[in-house]
Design brief:
Length: about 200
Amino acid sequence: MLPIRYTEPVFRPPSEAESLILPVTDGCSWNKCSYCEMYTAPQKKFKARSEDEVLEMIRRCGELLGNRTRRVFLADGDALILPTHRLLKILEAIAEHLPAVERVGSYCLPRNLKRKSIEELAELSSAGLKIAYVGAESGDDTVLARVNKGETFESTADALNKLGEAGIIRSVMLLNGLGGQIHSDAHADGSARLANATQPEYLAT
């Protein structure tokens, strides 16, 4: 049994199925999107795990798993809200105690990158953060406002371009049908414009 205290339910991208899921936060700091119920359970109210708890989990996982772990996913909904210095400590601990890890990933809300420079993100990339999963959902501002996403075309594009310049792989999610019948064309056009403007490495719908 892993020495990790999970707060159920736990979510991760499909491509992280074989990864060690390491909770550094619980829930989602925004948690207002009208289409999403991933983090609405009372026990999933947003909070950052303490630094001591996270580092201890990494140390104990290292003792148990040794060189058998290749990938780590930082849970929950937006681990990149943590300050850069906190994230660096986590990544450095992963490198020390789980030396076979080749890639660390995380969900990422665009708003949480406003306070992080490209240089900071590049430092995180060098320390092991190799992929960020961004739920863009749409590239149309009207559609985004209707679902209370709290983002715009510009804020999402800025975040994706920052990640790209820092050398972090971007896996972007768009939601088919989010515009409904009335805003279907605007949703499709805006989403295509976002993809063309940012050229993410991966794009899922």
